[in-house]
Known about the structure:
This protein is an alpha+beta fold and 253 residues long.
Amino acid sequence: MKFLEEFAPLAGRSHLQVLAQTDSTNNRVKELADAGAPSGAAVIADRQTAGRGRLGRSFSSPAGVGLYLSYLLRPTLPEDRLMTVPALAAVAGARAVRRAAGLDCGIKWPNDLVCAGRKVSGILTELVPTQSGPAVVIGIGINVHEQTFSPDAAQVAGYLDAWTDCPVSRGELAKALLEELDGLETLDGLREYRAACLTLGRTVRLLRPDGTQQAEALGIDRDYGLIVRYGDGREETVRSGEVSVRGLYGYIE
Ligand code: BTN
């Protein structure tokens, strides 16, 4: 099936570009933000040649197998709530996966989407100052169809079709995702995020520039920070960075 046929369910959506290839859909949406595009404008690519992930990593984006989508949000949230957008995007993404693939989908803090213990999606949000105030670019990559992962990624990653009877339509998934993102600012996100968060109640390893630290993941605060307790009883709220979760992906001890 040609990729454009798979994205047919999106016909009629305004301010949406579906491209065969681009370096990064986040770059295209940043340009749209600068050019004055409205909230809800989005770009999808069948393939990315320089897909970007969190923490400066690259995001492998081969043709024909994934959904690579970036969405422009011109927030109405107060500026001091903008840091909640990455977590809200994860809630929207998990909802879309449940709707379009019929799979259970959880969230690994801060915003990886996880099905059957495998990472199926990552989210990179970027703040863009524009003449009309701050805009947020929400970039989501979802592994949909069968694909071969690099040896490192293979320890962690999965794709949706691995658990479904019929192939998941990238068009139906994108449609559900865009609908959920359109409602992102009115989500009761905190309750849903906490319910979906697979990190809670588990032992985690916090990856810090000066080494790793083990802790118990206790809760999620109202700003979506991860509340942890160290072995000496000290508690801290972690707001950014990477945690590995015991029993999930490669961290099994
Ligand atoms: C991560 O897992 O670290 C986040 C990955 C985010 C990938 C998506 S794919 C669409 C958008 N364009 C990019 O270059 N990155 C995001």
